[in-house]
Write a sequence for this structure.
């Protein structure tokens, strides 16, 4: 975990006191490369120039909202995003995750929980497979590059979010076999995975939009009703 504390973090929130509180707590925990932004414009500038490794993002910002900002970010960056918002409705949480966020926390929050969730994202994105190269495999006309976190299609390259990368890695490790919902939630959210079934469905839908020719009629990532999902990879057992 020590090397992960050298990762660059960006806190985007219009409340100065909250930004300072979060930064102070994170610095106390050993993180030293921390940026702050109070607006969408400032956040985009920092993301383009400093290229942070993770963004903590509020929804209500003076010049826009975090949902729109995340949509624009995904046009040029796959940086992991953790929403930290006072808006705790299920629709907001599912919208944020559906747009490609990696986690969603509601204010008020426990600083220790923020640290645990932030650390979990960093470990999943940057720590796995450091000793071996992640696989590259093909699904139809698409090439899934788990090393770079990209799906290569005939027309464009599409970035995977951190959670999508974790889930696709789990699927590939168990290719052509059923992976239960519990096993997927465990892989994506560690031990604190209860209650994430609906969130898992959002991520599965997003993955299908990237790896399937017809996401509504999938050929590769199949639902096994009552159990979980199965990734079919031809030519591999």
């Amino acid at each position: 975990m020590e090397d992960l504390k050298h990762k660059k973090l960006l806190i985007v929130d219009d409340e100065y006191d909250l930004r300072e509180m979060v930064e102070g707590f994170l610095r106390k925990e050993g993180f030293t490369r921390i940026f702050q932004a109070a607006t969408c414009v400032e956040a985009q500038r920092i993301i383009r120039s400093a290229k942070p490794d993770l963004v903590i993002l509020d929804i209500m910002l003076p010049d826009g909202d975090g949902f729109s900002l995340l949509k624009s970010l995904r046009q040029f960056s796959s940086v992991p995003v953790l929403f930290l918002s006072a808006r705790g409705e299920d629709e907001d949480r599912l919208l944020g995750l559906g747009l490609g966020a990696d986690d969603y926390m509601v204010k008020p929050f426990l600083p220790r929980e923020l640290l645990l969730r932030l650390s979990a994202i960093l470990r999943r994105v940057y720590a796995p497979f450091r000793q071996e190269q992640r696989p590259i495999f093909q699904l139809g006309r698409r090439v899934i590059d788990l090393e770079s976190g990209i799906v290569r299609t005939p027309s464009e390259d599409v970035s995977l979010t951190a959670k999508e990368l974790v889930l696709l890695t789990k699927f590939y490790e168990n290719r052509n076999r059923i992976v239960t919902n519990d096993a997927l939630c465990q892989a994506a959210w560690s031990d604190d995975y209860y209650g994430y079934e609906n969130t898992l469905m959002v991520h599965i839908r997003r993955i299908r939009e990237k790896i399937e020719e017809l996401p509504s009629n999938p050929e590769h990532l199949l639902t096994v009703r009552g159990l979980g999902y199965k990734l079919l990879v031809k030519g591999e057992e």
Summary: The first helix runs from residue 16 to 28. The chain has two domains: 3-126, 136-231. Residues 176 and 232 are 5 Å apart (CA to CA). The longest strand covers residues 81-85.
